[in-house]
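Why should sequence recovery work at all? Because a backbone constrains its sequence more than one might expect. Tight turns favour small or flexible residues, buried strands favour hydrophobic ones, and helices have their own preferences. The token representation captures these environments compactly. In the example below, the structure is given first.
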């Protein structure tokens, strides 16, 4: 019977939509299971075949859990604020909302063609005001919260105000920007404005001057993970370090909890390692050094206070405020020039560049509080203002980077940890030796020396033992248009939150999407974007009088804001009263399975955990962590094609002749190749782009052969394969099976369209099991033991594979089972009906059609998954190969119930054995039960 995949797939996609087959109920006694894919950004290019890999895996698992009787939440939505739509708006004037809507429609059309079992009724978009209303609400909650270290959680700012009113800062243990000291009386006597200023020091969302990654070309601040090699990840524009007033999120308050929480999660170890490194916990001491001839003190954090006697110079971060104060007139030009150079590098670049040594001398000296020696003070880009105190005591004998610096600038190198190595030539960094040249620390091991020096530092009043974290607070401002407006207005220069009743603060219309002529962000172009405090509404900017009408914040939220809580909104996506009803968030709890890329390790996955912990602290949800199990899917790689252009010409030489010329290798669209070959369609190439219209070709055997290379599938590499084309030719079920068949989910693997024919052949075979010629024919006759064995072997394998996410081996098992059933001409209902259920998570369209033809009125989706019966896997007879002196002589079929001794006796007494033995007694008989018999004579 002809397998018409196009007709079948359209029919069932229409059925699922009309019957809302995958709509999830909140009212059920069933146990829950929450399966989620990482939020897609709807780009203009649409999906290529690499994108659905993770979605197919999560969809198989979601369908499997429905078959197991779970109430499955498997939603979809769009992270729809983003730079590409805004860049397009700047170029064309088209509103980003229009571009985004078009892109989403394209994505949705493609996703539905692949047959995903999403609950479309819960779809969310971060750029919808009904969604970002709650992103703004969470911001307001963060603003009105502080972190109490005594209770180890976020609390309402009102409890902090109460503490100030009763005790001032006495006994306060809070996460803060600066350590403040005042009495209850001083607090009460302060003006409202001064009180607000003090509270900003503690709020979890606060405004402060911060060193940021400023990208002039994009007109915005970028997060560290949006910058690569000193350039913006998007567009490749130069990025500079710059000090700006910015909104920040106090994620640093959660560093220890974020670290400890990793122990409770079933995540890939490399991803956990990335977060652990990013958080960067270290224990040591804070120590103060006097600067000779100045009142300034340099404070350092060191993890090796036991080496303080070997500290021979100091290094400050170029952006440290002390640099200006202590730099001498003679050194000012050199220092200023160095600071300018450093501003062109991001923190990440500076951390990664471990080989290059550079710096500038300030002209000043600090004094080592223990050795009494003078220490020249330098600046260098290897010291970061964001880590510790922005200053280090350099111990060149025992730190590789300090050693390189000392060698370059000819500075003193003093051994203080015992070693035979020559520390003048190479640093010796070890915690396994003892202290030398260190006065009262001499002879002590690392732990004892560390404890003793910290006690001495504290007794002298020049510092204290402490724990430090590399993780900095997260910048929460973007000088862009296409993002969530920050619900803040300014009165006397101080920020105040809008009332919750005024939310959402909607993105205003602007004439242009670039910064204003005054350098304000694009929202500065809005005509109606001011806050009337009296009437509690947004009004024209012309009315700003700073008495009753005030300016609103012009920055927007960063790209990660909306994606930091979307998993909660899916639980109750249309609620206008709260972001999610607590009964529902208690029911759905954590995401049980989260699938997405590892590139989000120190961005989205960290911010989501932070917001989740905060909402738990404030009593809005019950779960500590958002994502219990996480899988990073690998990439599907493209097979790129290249042509060779002879330098300075418009001539293109075929691959195997290119070695004879000076050439440039250029990507060419894979759609320009002939069929599935490597031969270029030269006429199509000439028509592809105007600059190739007059191309000339040097051919080999009358053909132009392109070079091929496996690399990331990307529009810019012209190696993209559109899933629509695959669905058209091989069907969505073919695409789904093939993507799983390519290899283990976590690994990257190359795409090869030719490979689809094998999977499509399997689907046709599977389809034809249910037909006799063109007639649907399934027998109600009881299956044989052999038929049941094929079925239950498959059940056992598929259950194991799905539960271990080994989807590729399941597809192989389907092929084996169908081949075996075809061989024995099985058409029994009791085999073919459960077979359709087993294969349905992978190939839902064909299985729905077969399920319907079998006479079932309901969707196959909620049919119970077939249960394994091990009895069918027990062999009645075993065929034993019999080997004599290592050579196989014959096979013997014996009952599977026989013991090893019984097998041995029957083999020896077999008539075929007698001529082999020739009356001899075997020296050794080895029976591998149910496998083989080995005889030595």
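From this structural description, the recovered sequence reads:
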């Amino acid at each position: 019977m002809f397998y018409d995949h196009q007709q079948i797939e359209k029919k069932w996609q229409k059925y699922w939509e009309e019957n809302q087959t995958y709509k999830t109920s909140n009212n059920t006694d069933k146990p829950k299971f929450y399966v989620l894919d990482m939020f897609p950004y709807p780009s203009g290019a649409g999906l290529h075949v690499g994108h659905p890999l993770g979605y197919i895996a999560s969809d198989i698992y979601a369908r499997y859990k429905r078959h197991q009787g779970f109430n499955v939440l498997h939603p979809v939505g769009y992270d729809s604020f983003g730079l590409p739509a805004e860049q397009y708006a700047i170029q064309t004037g088209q509103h980003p909302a229009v571009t985004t809507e078009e892109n989403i429609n394209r994505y949705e059309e493609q996703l539905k063609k692949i047959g995903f079992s999403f609950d479309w009724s819960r779809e969310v978009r971060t750029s919808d005001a009904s969604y970002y209303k709650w992103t703004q609400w969470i911001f307001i909650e963060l603003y009105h919260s502080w972190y109490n270290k005594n209770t180890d959680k976020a609390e309402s700012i009102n409890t902090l105000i109460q503490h100030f009113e009763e005790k001032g800062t006495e006994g306060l243990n809070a996460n803060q920007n600066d350590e403040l000291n005042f009495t209850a009386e001083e607090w009460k006597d302060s003006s409202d404005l001064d009180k607000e200023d003090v509270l900003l020091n503690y709020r979890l969302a606060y405004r402060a001057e911060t060193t940021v990654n400023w990208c002039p070309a994009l007109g915005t601040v970028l997060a560290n993970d949006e910058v690569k090699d000193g350039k913006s990840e998007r567009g490749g524009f130069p990025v500079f370090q710059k000090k700006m007033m910015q909104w920040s999120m106090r994620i640093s308050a959660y560093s220890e909890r974020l670290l400890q929480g990793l122990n409770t999660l079933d995540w890939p170890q490399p991803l956990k390692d990335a977060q652990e490194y990013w958080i960067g916990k270290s224990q040591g001491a804070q120590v103060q050094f006097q600067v000779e001839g100045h009142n300034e003190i340099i404070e350092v954090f060191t993890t090796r206070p036991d080496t303080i006697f070997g500290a021979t110079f100091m290094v400050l971060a170029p952006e440290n405020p002390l640099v200006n104060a202590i730099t001498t007139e003679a050194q000012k030009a050199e220092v200023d020039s160095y600071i300018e150079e450093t501003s062109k590098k991001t923190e990440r670049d500076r951390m990664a560049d471990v080989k290059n040594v550079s710096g500038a001398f300030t002209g000043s000296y600090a004094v080592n509080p223990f050795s009494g020696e003078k220490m020249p003070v330098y600046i260098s880009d290897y010291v970061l203002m964001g880590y510790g105190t922005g200053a280090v005591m350099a111990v060149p004998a025992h730190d590789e980077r300090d050693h390189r610096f000392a060698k370059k600038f000819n500075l003193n190198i003093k051994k203080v940890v015992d070693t035979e190595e020559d520390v003048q030539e190479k640093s010796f960094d070890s915690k396994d030796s003892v202290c030398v040249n260190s006065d009262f620390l001499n002879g002590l091991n690392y732990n004892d020396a560390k404890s003793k020096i910290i006690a001495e530092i504290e007794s002298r009043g020049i510092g204290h033992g402490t724990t430090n974290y590399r993780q900095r607070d997260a910048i929460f401002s973007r000088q862009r248009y296409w993002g969530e407006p920050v619900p803040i207005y300014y009165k006397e220069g101080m920020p105040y939150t809008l009332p919750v009743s005024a939310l959402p603060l909607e993105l205003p219309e602007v004439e242009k999407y670039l910064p204003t002529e005054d350098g304000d962000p694009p929202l500065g172009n809005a005509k109606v974007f001011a806050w009337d405090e009296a009437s509690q509404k947004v009004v024209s900017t012309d009315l700003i009088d700073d008495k009753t009408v005030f300016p609103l914040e012009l920055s927007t939220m960063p790209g990660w804001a909306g994606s930091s809580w979307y998993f909660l909104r899916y639980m109750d996506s249309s609620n206008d009263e709260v972001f999610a009803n607590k009964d529902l968030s208690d029911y759905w709890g954590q995401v049980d399975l989260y699938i997405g890329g590892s590139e989000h390790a120190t961005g989205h996955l960290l911010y989501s955990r932070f917001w989740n912990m905060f909402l738990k602290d404030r009593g809005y949800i019950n779960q500590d962590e958002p994502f219990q199990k996480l899988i990073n899917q690998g990439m599907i790689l493209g097979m790129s094609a290249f042509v060779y252009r002879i330098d300075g010409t418009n001539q293109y030489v075929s691959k195997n002749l290119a070695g004879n010329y000076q050439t440039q290798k250029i990507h060419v669209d894979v759609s320009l190749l002939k069929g599935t070959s490597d031969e270029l369609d030269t006429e199509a190439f000439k028509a592809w782009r105007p600059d190739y219209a007059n191309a000339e070709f040097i051919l080999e055997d009358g053909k132009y052969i392109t070079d091929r290379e496996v690399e990331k599938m990307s529009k810019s590499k012209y190696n993209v394969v559109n899933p629509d084309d695959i669905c058209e030719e091989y069907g969505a079920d073919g695409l789904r099976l093939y993507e799983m068949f390519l290899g283990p989910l976590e690994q990257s693997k190359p795409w090869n369209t030719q490979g689809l024919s094998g999977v499509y052949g399997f689907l046709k075979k599977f389809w034809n099991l249910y037909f006799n010629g063109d007639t649907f024919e399934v027998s109600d006759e009881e299956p044989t033991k052999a038929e049941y064995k094929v079925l239950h072997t498959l059940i056992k394998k598929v259950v194991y594979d799905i539960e271990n996410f080994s989807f590729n081996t399941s597809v192989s098992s389907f092929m084996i089972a169908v081949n075996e059933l075809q061989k024995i001409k099985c058409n029994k209902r009791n085999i073919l009906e459960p077979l359709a259920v087993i294969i349905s998570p992978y190939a839902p369209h064909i299985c729905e059609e077969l399920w319907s033809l079998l006479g079932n009125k309901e969707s196959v989706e909620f049919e119970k998954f077939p249960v394994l019966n091990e009895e069918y896997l027990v062999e009645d007879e075993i065929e034993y190969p019999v080997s004599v002196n290592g050579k196989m002589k014959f096979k013997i079929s014996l009952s599977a119930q026989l013991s090893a001794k019984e097998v041995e006796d029957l083999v020896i007494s077999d008539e075929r054995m007698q001529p082999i033995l020739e009356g001899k007694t075997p020296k050794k008989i080895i029976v591998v039960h149910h496998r083989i018999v080995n005889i030595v004579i």
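A few observations help interpret the result. The two ends are 58 Å apart (CA to CA).
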